[in-house]
Amino acid sequence: MAKKLRMGMVGGGQGAFIGAIHRYAAALDGQIELMCGAFSSNPQRAIDSGKELGIESNRNYQSFEKMFEEESKLPADQRMDFVAIVTPNHMHYPVAAAALSAGFHVICDKPATLDLAQAKLLKQQVQETGLLFGLTHTYTGYPMVKEARAIVKSGQLGALRKVVVEYTQGWLAQAETEDNKQAVWRTNPETSGLSGCMGDIGSHAANLAEYISGERIEEISAELTTFVPNRMLDDDGVALIHLSNGLKGILHASQVAVGEENNLSIRLYGEKGGLEWHQQEPNTLEVKWLDEPTQIFRTGGNHSPAAAINTRTPMGHPEGYLEAFANIYRHFGDAVHHYKKHGQSDKSSFDYPTIDDGVHGMAIIETLVQSSNSDQKWHKVST
Amino acid sequence: MAKKLRMGMVGGGQGAFIGAIHRYAAALDGQIELMCGAFSSNPQRAIDSGKELGIESNRNYQSFEKMFEEESKLPADQRMDFVAIVTPNHMHYPVAAAALSAGFHVICDKPATLDLAQAKLLKQQVQETGLLFGLTHTYTGYPMVKEARAIVKSGQLGALRKVVVEYTQGWLAQAETEDNKQAVWRTNPETSGLSGCMGDIGSHAANLAEYISGERIEEISAELTTFVPNRMLDDDGVALIHLSNGLKGILHASQVAVGEENNLSIRLYGEKGGLEWHQQEPNTLEVKWLDEPTQIFRTGGNHSPAAAINTRTPMGHPEGYLEAFANIYRHFGDAVHHYKKHGQSDKSSFDYPTIDDGVHGMAIIETLVQSSNSDQKWHKVST
Amino acid sequence: MAKKLRMGMVGGGQGAFIGAIHRYAAALDGQIELMCGAFSSNPQRAIDSGKELGIESNRNYQSFEKMFEEESKLPADQRMDFVAIVTPNHMHYPVAAAALSAGFHVICDKPATLDLAQAKLLKQQVQETGLLFGLTHTYTGYPMVKEARAIVKSGQLGALRKVVVEYTQGWLAQAETEDNKQAVWRTNPETSGLSGCMGDIGSHAANLAEYISGERIEEISAELTTFVPNRMLDDDGVALIHLSNGLKGILHASQVAVGEENNLSIRLYGEKGGLEWHQQEPNTLEVKWLDEPTQIFRTGGNHSPAAAINTRTPMGHPEGYLEAFANIYRHFGDAVHHYKKHGQSDKSSFDYPTIDDGVHGMAIIETLVQSSNSDQKWHKVST
Amino acid sequence: MAKKLRMGMVGGGQGAFIGAIHRYAAALDGQIELMCGAFSSNPQRAIDSGKELGIESNRNYQSFEKMFEEESKLPADQRMDFVAIVTPNHMHYPVAAAALSAGFHVICDKPATLDLAQAKLLKQQVQETGLLFGLTHTYTGYPMVKEARAIVKSGQLGALRKVVVEYTQGWLAQAETEDNKQAVWRTNPETSGLSGCMGDIGSHAANLAEYISGERIEEISAELTTFVPNRMLDDDGVALIHLSNGLKGILHASQVAVGEENNLSIRLYGEKGGLEWHQQEPNTLEVKWLDEPTQIFRTGGNHSPAAAINTRTPMGHPEGYLEAFANIYRHFGDAVHHYKKHGQSDKSSFDYPTIDDGVHGMAIIETLVQSSNSDQKWHKVST
After folding, report:
1. In CATH, what class is D143-312+362-372?
2. 10 Å Cβ neighbour count for D192?
3. ipTM
4. Across the interface, which of D293, D296, D301 has its CB nearest the CB of B301?
5. Of B39, B345, D42, D225, whose Cβ has the fewest other Cβ atoms within 10 Å?
6. Under CATH, which number does the domain C5-138+325-353 receive?
């Protein structure tokens, strides 16, 4: 086995949420080491956070610019191999662009950028540098999501007709307060982007539907709503969607669905069969048939290779969110190893979301907002 | 206790489905007796069906016209008290109109009529005759649906924001064959009406959402689809809906959702709480709160009077579809008793769907179809 | 179809529970009519109860003795066809014996009698008279229980190894109070018998395990417990059980399991497959396999004829406790019709529990109590 | 934050199962580093396995004896801090004894030893050395198990009455084959110990019941069974159990329950409330009450500090088996840090299973076997 990869991190300091998640995910397989970081836009908080995380002081940076500059100077066998970007959305693009410019691979929390224009610029830079860009659409890392995709690909369901995907939460049902750092930046267009709820979680739902079905969202008829008074961005949204090859569906996201935790769920129906999966009980996949009893597929069962290689434990030992997240890191890490060995990327061999997903995801968000503001029923997703 | 009520039935002979269901529902409490019937539009099948059902030969009629004529001649203490109409949709109006003209109360399967115009005519006749008209929106008969409505009324959920209601089935995922009598008439506009799936089951979903929320659907943005080639009516449909008082929602129905049985489900979210109910496990109602654990309300628990009077067994003894259906008959029967005693109807005291629900339901169906055929995003439900 | 059967009832008046359940169950199919009754051991309450139920005054009796005497005098086409006994346990035997002596078929709530000696006497009388005796072990009436039994019979599970059956409730977790009539008689040995919890509900669990597996409980190692101070009978019990043909298992019943409603559940494992069923969600049967995904069998699916003939509605229309109970009545009614036509009973053709189940059930209860009082590990069930 | 702890491992090489699990669990928090190992009793396989795991060659040992010898010679800031023992059961004692003798803390897979005598010897050595010994009863690491224990401690359930704990699997339903290394050693008394199923998984169930209830198993009436022909050890077992303070229960384990995966489940009932938890859906804890609706507690909710500190993600982001396992490592790691700082152990402050659990667990296993071989009903657990 190759040596551990060295990871740097931007963001994810004290008070943050997603940074810790990335660190668990990167650590789980024991193949990636967090070597350096610039953990906050506030220099003091950055340093304090790095100390808490046990980062060596000479690699605990006050800013991402400094980090890229200093790491670049290190010998190849000490320098970080890639950077994980876990800042609020508005910083994704500047940090990613700087990292690529400095020659570092990037793995970035979603959405890829603040808007579609940035995403296109970033894609151009990724293409020009030939470096790797991974986007952590975590939920596609679950073994039963891999299995669902494999079942669709096998053709067992027949031609696809209908997909119903939703992602509902209740944590923004009331007005956000200043002390909830997560709520504050996610509801502010300057840090979050054009859309609140749809950008934050609807984007995951859209990605999941596309990943499993293998089809792309092409047309949208949406209504986004801001239920909580004085909130600046949508906290709820529904869209009728048309995907490629005649697949139709519903895309639904809400952050005011009181009592819902993190209810990402999908149902997909073809001519001959259907699938149902719920992220909160992620090790079960219901497989439905025209004239046979529903089957319960379970993580660790005798399923597709795609599911098997993303599974760490035997049946009945529940795998969770961090394992799914770690699968994204594992596949991205494999791609980095490949790059290190071969000096170039190999897009087709590794199963993680890329800048293409990022650009398409931003296009969906912009179309959702555009559609919601229009009296015209259908809007095409620009490409 | 008053003597048993005498019921006549139109439709529901050999090969029918819903007729038997009405008979079970009417019989369960031992307070209604099936005395007479015209069980088919085919005279021979009508007679054969009545014989099978043990109907006395002198009250086993070849046609509904004959039944109304002959029953009218019987003394008051022998004559049927009301007629149950369980024919295909296109016969609802003519039979109901004839029954009312002959002075009989009517309980009718849904939808009320073939189209909105008929529904309005029927409403006029109901008003003019002062007779009772019950519509069997069965699903509102479940104890936990009553409980859900009571919780909403109590204000515990705060102002309502979002409702997600769906009714999905898979039994029409393939082209219907001639020997499936149910499938044939339900997919034919002449017998079924303007809409297939939305008329057949979407109407139940819409009614359920309105019943529990206490709000009315006012605006619709819909897409109806016919997935199965050569089918004449929609077999799937989705609508964004605006209800009164700012409630928004999703109305979803499908008959091509392979593997789904009779999946009528509803979730409703207010400012302070939420509700979730699934018809296939009807004795459980999830009640969700902002900061407290979800509670599991169960049929037979210490709940509202509205739930209690619609419950026949202690907790843990599952009540099913027939019990819910029987609740509609029980309340309609109570209203008939009241009428017999007082010589007039008392709309407000009895909890069963009426012609008002019928008219509104037909208006929703027509708006769904109209919206689906339009490029304009929103259509108002005509009243 | 033959004419309706005429039913008489003993017990089940005001304040009773199970009498109403029997009435619903008998009424559901519209093929049995409650014609007469002696609804209480208190003559005034008997009369009042009958009035409430709409019984004609000349057939509303003050005592069961009077009812049997008077009904015997009526012409065959008016006289009751059978009697339903729904009294507390201690009255089962005297009423059943009197009914058989008067020439009436009997359907009786369980347990058959107060003790094993009575059960044996009753069996002798049933055999001598050739009349029908049905015992309402309700839970065997569910379609998915029929299906489970059919699967076992088919041999698909291989040789059976292990059965785990339980029936847990929480309603007696606190000391019973005088105003809870149900609790009072069920915890009194004079009215309930040797055992409280095991007699009341453990007996159902034992019967269910035997019905599905097709094997008989032969040896028992039990511990019965009275958790609530001053209670006279057990309110909880567990037994290791040995059944015929090498099947082993656990029999568990409790009435102090706080929060449990009516949790009758069974799991059965053979060499090649397993089954799981829960009474509170009775329309689902999990079928498990060595190397294949678990299958979800559902009421109304394409299952065995035994399941099909006990199902009234299509898939997804939940059938409940009353439908299961009605299935016992339906099969008993079929047997009564057969008797009326042929002048004799035909035990093997009709699927309802008989006096044989009653005798065996009483033997199990006595062995459970005997075992619980002994330091010896295993006790044989006397036959 | 302190520097990472250095871990050595004995066992867990190619073809092993539990070793990889320990590695994931140790790595997740990024606070423990696998520095060295003797990964197999076969020297060549040991070396090959270490290479695969990326262990530096100078710390990749051919035998555990060598490892303890060489590591002891290293400077304190390089030497391993503790050893994880993940061999088959029969090697637990010799390896642990050697590690303690060499001055290393030990974390060991369960059961602690091959038999009770060894466990007592080991306990003596732990006491004499003052070193730390952790036992990976993984399932007590789940947040909702912590919550369950906290609820019991709070007294909200009242005095405890009944516990039902089971651990059922189906993977040994057929005769094991030579190529299933896991099955082979677990069914061989020389490598596994006195008991198969009860030793392997019944021991986890017993531990869980004791951990949540806070009571100890004192008396046992058991039947162990070997269902699969020619198997040397039990593959199924049931015991009635008496715990301290009047708590009674059922302990059930099986490895021939076809279709079960890793079904560890517990229900616990007190005078005023009850709890239900299933390991396969570990983020849900049902909390039941006398007269209030059941509440659904969920990982990440506003629960006890004990649950909170064992939770890594927000509500609705499922935590799994590896997170629970990592919690054992986290608490053991905290204890190691404490020892390193203070030069002595502090048993009471850290929440992980110790040698006391190991001794008691072995006593339970021996009593289960003894009881199963006896005609006497009850056997006391020797202490």
Report:
1. alpha beta
2. 22
3. 0.95
4. D293
5. D42
6. 3.40.50.720
